[in-house]
Design a protein that fits this description.
The complex is a heterodimer of chains A (about 100) and B (about 300). By secondary structure, chain A is an alpha+beta fold. Chain A contains four helices and three strands; from the N terminus they run αβααββα. Chain A has a three-stranded antiparallel beta sheet with strand order 1-3-2. By secondary structure, chain B is mainly α. Chain B contains eleven helices and no strands. In chain B, α5 packs across α6 and α7 packs antiparallel against α9. The longest helix of chain B has about 40 residues. Chain B is elongated. The relative contact order of chain B is 0.07. The C terminus of chain B is likely disordered. Classes of the chains: A alpha+beta (about 100), B mainly alpha (about 300). At the A-B interface, α2 and α3 of A face α2 and α3 of B.
Chain lengths: ~100, ~300
């Protein structure tokens, strides 16, 4: 049996949220709403995932007129492989729902 | 880009951007951009989270850790130099030329070290401190090795009968037993060696204390008597620590531990009237000796409770 990566539950939650629609670019606040993870935890986690090559980021134009571009995130091939090793059953709650979007 | 200075929440976010390390500025720019899409009711918590993230990123940033270590080294060196200047000033008042010169010399060395660390970083500290540590260690190791190393028979012998012990069973089990016993023996041997080295240093400090009496006091007064008494107490306590290494009784070990604790208390009390480097060194030496004595006594008790395989 292959050795599973030692990743926190919150990272697993974020990976599963990103795995839902792997081809789409997701925004930080959108992920916060989806996973219920606070900004103070989510952004450092995204930074680590990006440093490790599991996540790619890019600036995309805002949908609102005259607003600054937003930073969007998507899993890389390595990130997809990592996310697929995470099982929903391992998490305390499978449905993420609306959480603490801060 | 949005203006983050018009509200308290905006100021919080701007503070986060200032705190964040330079290599993460893009990420905090992303947070500022995202802030524009956060509902008003959640903006405060979002900004607070960003601030916490900035503090966390700053704390683990290599540049910050390096700068903090450098600042601590510089501060410690300057503090130590100041204490030595103060000590030298006191010796100057007593016309004690040799300790005064030692004090100013030490202060000069540590000032140079602080300046070099400020200019060239931690590698300068290592380059300057390594020879100093080597000289100090070189002075301490030979007498310790002479007493503990050469005189003892090596534990491992080809016939497996080192120190007269034997293991039940043969082959691999015997080798395993020997290895475990050897590790335990080695760890127990290190403690007396450390204690002896510390005791020698404490004894030397006591001898220096005694030798300084004639320089510090011109006449035989009650103060001079106390000064001599302190030096003698240090020499006697250090000698007791060296002799206690040969005495196996737990009572002796506890008595020596008590002596060392009392000497530590004495130096702590001395700090109130004489806050100089010599008091710190003496106190640290006897505190270390007290800890060694207590560890040794505890180790011997455990050894009596769980004797090795015979």
């Amino acid at each position: 049996m292959p050795r599973r990566a030692n990743i926190s539950r919150q990272t697993q939650t974020a990976l599963l949220a990103l795995l839902e629609r792997p081809q789409e670019w997701r925004y930080g606040y959108e992920l916060m709403e989806r996973t219920g993870i606070a900004s103070g935890t989510l952004y450092p986690m995204l930074i680590r995932l990006c440093d490790q090559g599991h996540l790619e980021a890019r600036w995309v134009p805002s949908s609102r007129e005259g607003r600054p571009p937003r930073h969007a995130y998507r899993l890389t091939t390595a990130g997809l492989a990592l996310a697929r090793t995470v099982r929903s059953a391992d998490l305390p709650r499978a449905d993420f729902g609306m959480g603490l979007a801060v | 880009m949005i203006d983050t200075t018009d509200t308290h929440v905006g100021r919080l976010l701007a503070l986060a951007c200032r705190i964040a390390p330079p290599e993460r500025h893009e990420w905090f720019a992303a947070m500022v951009a995202e802030f524009d899409h956060v509902p008003d009711s959640a903006r405060g918590r979002f900004a607070l989270g960003c601030l916490l993230a900035a503090i966390r990123e700053r704390a683990i940033s290599p540049q910050f850790v390096n700068a903090a270590a450098r600042s601590m080294l510089i501060g410690g060196a300057v503090f130590w130099a100041g204490l030595n200047v103060r000590f030298a000033g006191r010796m100057s008042a007593n016309e004690a030329l040799v300790p005064e010169a030692i004090g100013y010399g030490t202060a000069l060395i540590f000032t140079i070290g602080a300046l070099a660390t400020a200019r060239y970083g931690c590698r300068a500290t290592i380059a300057l401190a390594a020879p100093l540590m080597a000289v100090l260690a070189g002075g301490c190791v030979p007498p310790v090795r002479k007493r503990t190393g050469a005189a003892r028979e090596p534990y491992h012998r080809a016939d497996g009968g080192g120190s007269g012990r034997s293991c039940p069973g043969g082959g691999d089990r015997r080798l395993r037993c020997q290895s475990i016993a050897h590790q335990a023996e080695t760890s127990l041997m290190r403690l007396p060696a450390t204690r002896t080295a510390l005791a020698i240093l404490a004894g030397l400090l006591g001898v220096v204390h005694l030798a300084l009496t004639t320089l510090v006091y011109a006449n035989w007064t009650i103060d001079a008597l106390w000064f001599v008494g302190t030096g003698m107490a240090m020499v006697v306590a250090a000698a007791a620590n060296v002799i206690a290494g040969k005495a196996p009784g737990p009572g002796v070990r506890m008595s020596i531990a008590t002596v060392n604790i009392a000497m530590t208390g004495f130096f702590a009390a001395a700090w109130l009237v004489l806050p100089g480097p010599q008091t710190i060194i003496g106190g640290l030496l006897f505190l270390s000796l007290a800890l060694c004595s207590l560890s040794s006594a505890a180790g011997m008790d455990a050894r009596h409770e769980h004797p090795p395989l015979v």
